[in-house]
From TrEMBL:
Domain of life: Bacteria
Signal peptide: none
Annotated organism of origin: Desulfovibrio ferrophilus
Portion of the full sequence shown: 277 to 557 of 561
Lineage start: Bacteria, Pseudomonadati, Thermodesulfobacteriota, Desulfovibrionia, Desulfovibrionales
Regions that span the bilayer: none
Domain EAL: 23-279
This protein's name: Putative sensory box protein
Length: 281
């Protein structure tokens, strides 16, 4: 079935049309995929800089398409956003990851409590019932609200900041914590940050990966970390791939990191095994 993929259009059609066809087929396939369980969740460890202590996981969506094989979120998330299917997909990821984590916790009550970090897209966060939907998932999965962290982009927050702030406050009242994702890539007006009910700031992997080649990035990251410190926010650096990056980040005062240097996103069974080795000492 491989030759049924998008490649066969390449010879005959201009690129735009090819892309439109691909997007449309993803769109119709997505309903089936949700119903038939083609989506799954992987978990990427978030670790403390000191001794690589496991602090939690970020849940990331994956799609195993029966004909096209693995499709990455960079392809299907934009389609899901455009068509509104992100509401259902996003809630499914939340529910699936909460129930996984709740199961692991029940199986290993001696393990250190971990944070589950879940992405909420702009469109999903703009939905009127989002706070209640999240509350219901927490109830249904019996996952403790104070162990859930939601990752919002600057765009999701700034689109309609008043509404966003109201929702963020309502979520925090449940015990949920909030991170701003991909920090530094959006409308980074530093002044708005202090007015937002935030707990955590994730430095975009673009800055982290350029730490070595471009010394000016070091100053940007230093500024972000010091800003976060001043506002009482924790910082997670994402996309940490090398020991040098980690070294520089630790010198700059970053507390947590996430990246291939420590672990790639992993299947639930592997994540569970990692938890077993993470007893409280
Ligand atoms: P993100 O939220 O910024 O997630 C981090 C991305 O960086 C993930 O890509 C992760 O696999 C990748 N990554 C982690 N460590 C490294 C590293 O050391 N090097 C490199 N090069 N990459 C690293 P992924 O899983 O492909 O997801 C891409 C984006 O898709 C995410 O970026 C997020 O914006 C979106 N996404 C994924 N799952 C979901 C979801 O369930 N809901 C929503 N709304 N968006 C999602
Ligand atoms: Ca994220
Ligand atoms: Ca991110
Ligand atoms: Ca990113």
């Amino acid at each position: 079935a491989k030759d049924q993929g998008p490649d066969r259009f390449k010879v005959f059609t201009p690129r735009l049309h090819e892309e439109a066809v691909w997007m449309m087929s993803l769109e119709t396939d997505m309903d089936r995929a949700l119903a038939e369980g083609e989506f799954y969740v992987v978990f990427q460890p978030i670790v403390g800089l000191e001794a690589d202590t496991l602090m939690g996981f970020e849940a990331l969506a994956r799609w195993r398409h029966p004909e096209r094989g693995e499709i990455l979120p960079s392809e299907f998330i934009p389609v899901a956003e455009e068509t509104g299917r992100i509401d259902a997909l996003g809630l499914w990821v939340l529910s699936e990851s909460c129930s996984n984590m709740a199961d692991w916790r029940a199986a290993h009550p001696e393990a250190r409590p971990l944070i589950l970090s879940v992405n909420i897209s702009s469109r999903q966060f703009a939905k009127k019932d989002i706070v209640n939907d999240i509350r219901l998932v927490l109830e249904k999965t019996n996952f403790p609200a104070d162990r859930l962290r939601l990752e919002l982009t600057e765009t999701a927050i700034m689109q309609d900041a008043r509404t966003a702030v109201r929702r963020m406050k309502a979520l925090r009242a449940l015990g949920v914590t909030i991170a701003v994702d991909d920090f530094g890539t959006g409308y980074s007006s530093m002044s708005y940050l202090q007015q937002l009910p935030l707990d955590n700031l994730k430095i975009d992997l673009g800055f982290v990966q350029k730490l070595e080649q471009h010394p000016e990035n070091r100053e940007i990251v230093r500024a972000i970390i010091s800003l976060a410190g001043g506002l009482g926010l924790n910082v997670v650096a994402e996309g940490v791939e090398s020991a040098i990056q980690k070294q520089v980040l630790s010198e700059l005062g970053c507390q947590m990191y996430q990246g291939y240097l420590f672990a790639r996103p992993m299947k639930p069974e592997q994540a569970k095994a990692l938890i077993m080795g993470n007893r409280e000492t």
